[in-house]
């Protein structure tokens, strides 16, 4: 217990110390939200990866899908690395950096408002982002607190409150730069931790060959022999839905895409692509590979008689040595605090810049009407930062209340959040970077499609599994945008051309 407490205190002290160190760079909106658009490839790549993978993956997804699909759940980690990291950086990295800097966009709703000349889109997108990031944040709280309860014996409620307070402190102090620097430290811990834990679990089962043999000797829920040690598991189509949701979704999430806004230049994007992909292979692949051995341990049965999926991974780890449990706690703490920091920063900046202070920007090449005094502008900037800090507290409190009484499993919380956000944002954002023909009406249609499908499915009692519903929402957004764009009025050619000038420079 002394080792666990000591390492955790040192870790948390470093996190807060980084926040204090970075506070001077967080005095302006650009510095607080984007780190001055000067964050290097290593920090950006690790910020992307640590925001991607949290306790939701390590505890919720690895446990639930490792139990359901066995070793084939490792394909989810591979998909996260290839689609969610490599493809995301290749498709979005350079174009997002260039266009958002060109049109002076600081958030994803701001991008929609400027790119498609609609303040209405900007406002609605900010509301969607704020509302649907809350269940994801609650899922992260739940995952981290489950592990903390196992490692320290501290009641779940206290764990949730402590994590919320500590995350708020360093984000409020240092903004995005503090978050990125802490993400790098947390990423190193995650890489070292996941490898160590996998080795320890396999050793406890007699080695890799013995562990796989034990899985192969088990029959599936429908009596299929050896299915949990097979290449594609008992339900390949269900597995594919999870791969799509958890991989493709990153390209439509405000907290993920925002990382490309802040990176320094194109050479940094190339290096960041490699770093981020390798990180995802090790962390995501390792998490799901570990979860694949969950059936070798006795499951925890919840009060309703069903398996408590969120307790599967903790049950695997509770038998480890105190030093390794301390490492696991730090691993999950690192993964979760980085994701929480990214979520609360994204939510507060979106609400502040896209709802409370909606500045009217001129496109490059347009003449700006009037200007304000530099002193007044500086005061407004500082006021915006103060509002963002207040909203960080507000967002944390709301998600905290949900986390204290979570409505469903972690995986379902994430499915609802990712399905609505990426279902609404993915297609119009990606196509808006590449295709001049995307219309404002098609973006509205995709917002209605993504949010509508997710909410209706939820209100009807989830007749479609939230995971599969999220995957359908994401993929369906592309034909929605394409078809509506064909039959609705196009934007002014001059406006669109001014936006796409950034790719010719």
Written description of the protein model:
The structure is a single chain. The protein is an all-alpha fold and 505 residues long. It has a single domain (2-361, 374-406), classed as Sodium/glucose cotransporter, CATH 1.20.1730. Helices cover 75% and strands 0% of the residues.
| CATH top-level class | Mainly Alpha
Element-by-element helix/strand order? HHHHHHHHHHHHHHHHHHH
**Overall domain count:** 1
Backbone structural class: mainly alpha
- How large is the radius of gyration? 22 Å
> Please, how many helices?
19
Q: Quick check: average pLDDT? A: 82
CATH superfamily assignment?
Answer: Sodium/glucose cotransporter
Q: How many beta-strand elements?
A: 0
Which bin fits the share of residues in helices? over 70%
Pick out the low-confidence regions.
367-371
* CATH arch. level architecture: Up-down Bundle
The backbone outline, from C-alpha atoms, is: globular
Gap from first CA to last CA? 58 Å
List the helices and strands and how they pair.
Blueprint: H1 2-21, H2 29-34, H3 41-52, H4 55-69, H5 74-102, H6 108-115, H7 119-152, H8 156-204, H9 208-216, H10 236-248, H11 254-262, H12 266-291, H13 312-317, H14 322-356, H15 374-404, H16 410-434, H17 440-459, H18 466-487, H19 493-500
Helix pairs in contact: 1-8, 1-14, 3-8, 3-11, 3-12, 3-14, 4-7, 4-12, 4-14, 5-10, 5-11, 5-12, 6-7, 7-8, 7-14, 7-15, 7-16, 8-12, 8-14, 8-15, 10-18, 11-14, 14-15, 16-17, 16-18, 17-18
């Amino acid at each position: 217990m002394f080792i666990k407490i000591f390492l955790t205190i040192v870790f948390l002290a470093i996190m807060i110390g980084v926040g204090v160190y970075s506070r001077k760079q967080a005095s302006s909106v650009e510095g607080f939200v984007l780190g001055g658009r000067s964050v290097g490839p290593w920090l950006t790549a690790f910020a992307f990866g640590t925001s991607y993978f949290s306790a939701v993956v390590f505890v919720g997804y690895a446990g639930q899908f490792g139990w359901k699909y066995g070793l084939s759940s490792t394909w989810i980690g591979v998909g996260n690395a290839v689609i969610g990291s490599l493809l995301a950086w290749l498709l979005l990295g350079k174009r997002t950096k260039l266009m958002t800097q060109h049109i002076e966009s600081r958030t994803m709703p701001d991008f929609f408002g400027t790119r498609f000349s609609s303040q209405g889109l900007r406002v609605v997108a900010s509301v969607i982002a704020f509302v649907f990031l809350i269940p994801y944040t609650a899922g992260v709280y739940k995952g981290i607190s489950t592990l903390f309860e196992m490692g320290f014996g501290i009641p779940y409620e206290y764990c949730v409150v402590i994590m919320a307070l500590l995350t708020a402190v360093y984000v409020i102090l240092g903004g995005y730069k503090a978050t990125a620097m802490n993400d790098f430290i947390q990423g190193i811990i995650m890489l070292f931790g996941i490898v160590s834990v996998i080795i320890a679990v396999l050793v406890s089962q007699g080695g890799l060959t013995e562990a796989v043999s034990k899985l192969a000797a088990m029959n599936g829920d429908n009596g299929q022999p050896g299915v949990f040690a097979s290449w594609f598991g008992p339900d390949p189509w269900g597995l594919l839905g999870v791969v799509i949701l958890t991989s493709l979704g990153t390209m439509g999430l405000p907290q993920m895409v925002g990382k490309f806004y802040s990176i320094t230049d194109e050479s940094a994007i190339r290096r960041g692509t490699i770093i981020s992909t390798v990180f995802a292979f090790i962390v995501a692949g390792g998490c799901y590979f570990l979860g694949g051995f969950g059936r070798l341990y006795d499951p925890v049965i919840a009060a309703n008689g069903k398996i408590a999926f969120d307790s599967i991974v903790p049950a695997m780890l509770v038998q480890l040595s105190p030093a390794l449990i301390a490492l696991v706690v730090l691993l999950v703490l690192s993964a979760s605090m980085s994701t929480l920091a990214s979520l609360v920063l994204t939510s507060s900046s979106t609400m502040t810049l896209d709802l409370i202070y909606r500045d009217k920007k001129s496109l490059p090449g347009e003449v700006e009407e009037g200007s304000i005094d530099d002193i007044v502008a500086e005061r407004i900037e500082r006021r915006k930062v103060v509002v963002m800090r207040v909203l960080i507290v507000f967002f944390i409190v709301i998600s905290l209340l949900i986390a204290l009484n979570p409505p469903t499993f972690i995986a379902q919380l994430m499915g609802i959040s990712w399905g609505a956000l990426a279902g609404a944002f993915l297609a119009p954002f990606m196509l808006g970077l590449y295709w001049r023909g995307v219309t404002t009406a098609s973006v509205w249609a995709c917002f209605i499609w993504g949010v509508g499908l997710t909410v209706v499915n939820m209100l009807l009692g989830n007749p479609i599994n939230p995971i599969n519903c999220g995957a359908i929402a994401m993929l369906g957004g592309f034909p929605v945008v394409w078809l509506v764009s064909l039959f609705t009025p196009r934007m002014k050619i001059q406006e669109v051309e001014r936006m796409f000038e950034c790719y010719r420079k």
